[in-house]
Specification:
- It is built from eleven helices and 19 strands.
- It is α/β, with parallel strands linked by helices.
- It folds into two domains: 82 residues, OB fold (Dihydrolipoamide Acetyltransferase, E2P), CATH 2.40.50; 273 residues.
- It has an eight-stranded parallel β-sheet, with helices on both faces. Strands 1-2-3-5-4 form a five-stranded mixed β-barrel.
- A hairpin with an 8-residue loop joins strand 1 and strand 2.
- Helix 3 packs across helix 10.
Length: 416
């Protein structure tokens, strides 16, 4: 059930010119405040307003806010969200040419013009796609791609799994401003990007075929849904994105979620999110590791941390890395790629994940940088030599790991 409350806007940032998020400070209007004699001082609360959906807010406006995330103390949702502005209402935008509903059958349903109606299906696309486990990987992937493929046009397809509003990501805005992303399409339930797509496959096809992207990166918005279970988490969106890319004939890179500093055992070493996706994918994909690392699991991972990031870059004291060796991940094409952590640190791009910085979790950022470098290398190779069609490439399942890749055993148990 929606947890909606009346509130008054105390402060409001300037509304973005082209639509976006407005930062607000609000105070809830409790029933007692209708009777001043019984009123109690009310706490100020942070809030956001998606101006593309609910219009702009100004100080003094009476609004309806959804308070569930802030009341629950969610780390990635620590603010209220404006549901409606009762003072100035909603300025109806023109709906000409829009024939598809997003957030359909909710109180925020709205029409969009999908990109899928603008071209016919033509496959194979033969341009590479990187699939993210979570949004925090986007900036290092884009930065490393630009370093590996100068001048390459990389587009972002935002999927479900995390925040749905495309306007919520500050990283996307900064990457677009720096020219590190060539475009932003929100797919499926996600909305509010520069263009809208009904499906992830439609977004990838449009970006690579019609917009001229050299490569695409697919993944959820900020934050991620999680339940500590094998299937109940937002990282499962990577399975759908991987299959969409493979079906369209795209060389596919899965950007592994690895960590040397996460306090949760299930995310140390190679995250159970990535293990599950690698296990369930119907076809093998490319997975990159930072140069110097032989394996994403066990003793070889511990040894590789020092080789890849220096002696000081090791796991946090008292937090042992995952030692189990999942059997089915050996069928994938594991590659090593050079990473430049100091260069990324100096870029000024986002460099924290769940409160941990580069020095506290070099493996997380190193894995993302390796994924971006591998994507750049695949892009250059496809342009230089042409990428074989799926039927010519053959099925790599059961083959030994890539000659430049990780030394992974075929036997072992999966991590929970």
């Amino acid at each position: 059930m929606l947890k909606l409350r009346r509130a008054t806007v105390l402060e409001a940032s300037d509304p973005p010119a082209a639509g976006g998020e407005q930062q607000l400070t609000v105070v809830l209007t409790s029933p007692e405040q209708a009777h001043p004699a019984h009123a109690q001082p009310a706490a100020e609360r942070a809030a956001i307003a998606d101006t593309g959906l609910v219009g702009e807010c100004r100080a003094g406006d009476e609004v309806i806010v959804n308070v569930e995330a802030l009341d629950l103390g969610l780390g990635s949702g620590g603010f209220d969200i404006v549901h409606a502005n009762l003072t100035r209402g909603l300025a109806a935008a023109g709906a000409a040419g829009r024939n598809v509903m997003k957030l359909n059958y909710t109180s925020l349903q709205h029409t969009v013009r999908p990109v899928e109606g603008e071209s016919e299906l033509r496959v194979p696309l033969e341009r590479p796609v990187a699939v993210l486990a979570l949004h925090g990987q986007l900036a290092p992937v884009a930065w490393a791609f630009a370093a590996a493929r100068p001048g390459g046009r990389l587009g972002y397809v935002q999927t479900a799994g995390g925040a749905l509003p495309g306007r919520h990501s500050r990283a996307v805005a900064e990457l677009r401003a720096r020219g590190l992303l060539a475009g932003h399409i929100t797919a499926g339930a996600s909305f509010g990007g520069e263009q809208e797509a009904v499906s992830t496959a439609g977004a990838i096809h449009h970006g690579l075929r019609e917009l001229g992207w050299d490569a695409a990166v697919c993944g959820p918005g900020p934050g991620i849904v999680g339940s500590a279970s094998r299937l109940g988490h937002g990282g499962m969106a990577a399975l759908d994105s991987g299959h969409a890319a493979l079906a369209l004939g795209c060389p596919t890179v899965l950007v592994a979620r690895l960590s040397s500093g996460d306090s949760r055992e299930r995310h140390r070493g190679i995250s159970h999110h990535t293990i599950t996706v690698l296990d369930l994918l119907l076809e093998p994909v490319t997975v990159a590791l930072p140069a110097g690392m032989r394996s994403p699991v066990g003793a070889e991972l511990r040894a590789g941390l020092g080789a890849a990031f220096g002696r000081h870059a090791s796991e946090r004291p008292g937090l042992p890395l995952q030692a189990e060796r999942p059997a089915r991940i050996a069928r994938h094409d594991w590659r090593r790629a050079g990473v430049d952590l100091p260069g990324y640190a100096a870029s000024g791009l986002p460099a924290t994940t769940m409160g941990r910085g580069l020095a506290e979790d070099p493996l997380f950022f190193g894995a993302a940088l390796a994924g971006g470098a591998a994507l750049g290398e695949l892009t250059a190779a496809s342009e230089r030599e042409g990428w074989p069609a799926p039927e010519e490439g053959g099925d790599r399942a059961g083959e030994a790991p890539h000659e430049n890749g990780a030394a992974l055993g075929e036997n072992g148990s999966e991590a929970a």
